[in-house]
């Protein structure tokens, strides 16, 4: 027999927010990561949301006929038929990309279905070259959109009514969201989750997936070390650049770097520039800037402290480096891209 105290302590009712129905369309040759990345983000978001009685997600994967669908990766999916959706409301329609652009628009039945249901969806999204299917369905007419940078010019020439933004990670234009290549689908899903369930849930999902809530820059973004090493095969400069990243407060003038690789300063500066496509000084600046960006994104350390620990002469030198390279000050950069809360 329960006591009056126990009965009083029990909540009288629990309010559950209705789930959002997310429908993913697939076809022969679809990219597995374009599909699975956002799917996993929505699944993790649902785990967090249900604990707090917030918006959760019900995800459905459909194809024109239903049944087995082979991805470009060779993995076979078991999709539901698009007819199985019936008149069930679709909150968000997501079109993943494929390995080949022509594969994306080959399924004419799927194309007609998207043209029909898209106007009834609260949001319509594409990942990578899934944008070509939305464009073919007329969904992108008169809108800004993005796609994988390799295919941006093709999208613009094939569909002149679409204003292509080639360098964006994702573009939000009204009810339509388009994202760039492959992993950008996760960025898109996190943005949708933040819009639906709030920043706290979105950050929690990003942490579980070990990704940034908001990546800096566009598709041309780079890591200073990877960018430098992409210019040449593995050589003794790779080890030097890693050493620079680990000793940002050290003397990193040409003479010191040359001594580290046992070369004369003049010969070192000449060969490094030929190999990397930029001077040692510019490489050091880029590596310092890259380290500062990450610190601003991942920590709540003071800007002056980050400047000092990344080897800048002071906060003002770092500020000028940020404005010259990224077009924003360190403080504005943190406001936009920080994954932690002060």
Record keyword descriptors for this entry.
342 residues, alpha/beta, eight-stranded mixed β-sheet, two-stranded parallel sheet, 10 strands, elongated
Give the tally of β-strands.
10
Query: What is the first-to-last residue Cα distance?
Result: 49 Å
Helix content: 40-55%
- Strand content range: 5-15%
SS-derived structural category: alpha/beta
Largest sheet: 8 strands, mixed
Round the mean pLDDT to the nearest integer and report it: 87
The succession of helices and strands, N to C, reads: HEHEEEEHHEHEHEEEHHHHHHHHHH
Oligomer: single chain
- Low-confidence regions: 1-16
Numbering strands along the chain, what is their spatial order in the largest sheet?
3-4-2-1-5-6-10-9
- Give the CA-based shape: elongated
Number of helices: 16
Q: Radius of gyration, Cα only, in angstroms?
A: 25 Å
Description of the structure:
The chain is an alpha/beta fold and 342 residues long. The chain is 47% helix and 13% strand. The protein contains 16 helices and ten strands. The strands form two sheets. It has an eight-stranded mixed beta sheet with strand order 3-4-2-1-5-6-10-9. It has a two-stranded parallel sheet with strand order 7-8. Helix 2 links the parallel strand 1 and strand 2. The longest helix is centred in the N-terminal third of the chain and has 20 residues. The protein is elongated, with a radius of gyration of 25 Å.
């Amino acid at each position: 027999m329960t006591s009056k105290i126990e009965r009083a302590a029990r909540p009288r009712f629990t309010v559950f927010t209705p789930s959002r129905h997310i429908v993913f369309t697939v076809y022969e040759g679809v990219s597995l990561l374009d599909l699975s990345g956002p799917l996993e983000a929505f699944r993790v978001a649902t785990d967090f949301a249900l604990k707090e009685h917030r918006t959760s997600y019900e995800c459905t994967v459909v194809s024109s006929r239903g049944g087995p669908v082979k991805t470009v990766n060779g993995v076979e999916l078991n999709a539901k038929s698009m007819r199985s959706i019936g008149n069930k409301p679709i909150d968000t329609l997501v079109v993943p990309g494929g390995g080949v652009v022509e594969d994306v628009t080959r399924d004419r039945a799927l194309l007609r279905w998207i043209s029909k249901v898209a106007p009834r969806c609260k949001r319509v999204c594409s990942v990578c070259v899934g944008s070509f299917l939305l464009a073919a369905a007329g969904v992108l007419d008169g809108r800004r959109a993005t796609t994988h940078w390799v295919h941006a010019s093709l999208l613009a020439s094939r569909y002149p009514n679409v204003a292509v933004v080639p360098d964006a990670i994702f573009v939000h234009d009204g009810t339509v969201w388009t994202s760039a290549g492959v992993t950008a689908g996760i960025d898109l899903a996190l943005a949708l989750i933040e819009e639906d369930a709030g920043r706290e849930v979105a950050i929690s999902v990003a942490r579980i997936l070990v990704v940034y809530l908001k990546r800096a820059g566009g598709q041309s973004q780079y890591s200073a070390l990877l960018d430098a090493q992409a210019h040449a095969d593995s050589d003794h400069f790779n080890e030097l650049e890693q050493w620079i990243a680990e000793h940002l407060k050290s003397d990193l003038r040409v003479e010191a770097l040359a001594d580290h690789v046992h070369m004369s300063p003049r010969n070192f500066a000449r060969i490094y520039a030929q190999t990397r496509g930029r001077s040692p000084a510019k490489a050091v600046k880029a590596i310092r800037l890259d380290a500062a960006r990450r610190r601003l994104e991942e920590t709540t350390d003071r800007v002056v402290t980050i400047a000092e620990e990344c080897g800048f002469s002071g906060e003002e030198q770092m500020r000028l480096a940020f404005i010259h390279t990224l077009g924003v000050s360190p403080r504005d950069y943190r406001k936009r891209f920080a994954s932690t809360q002060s």
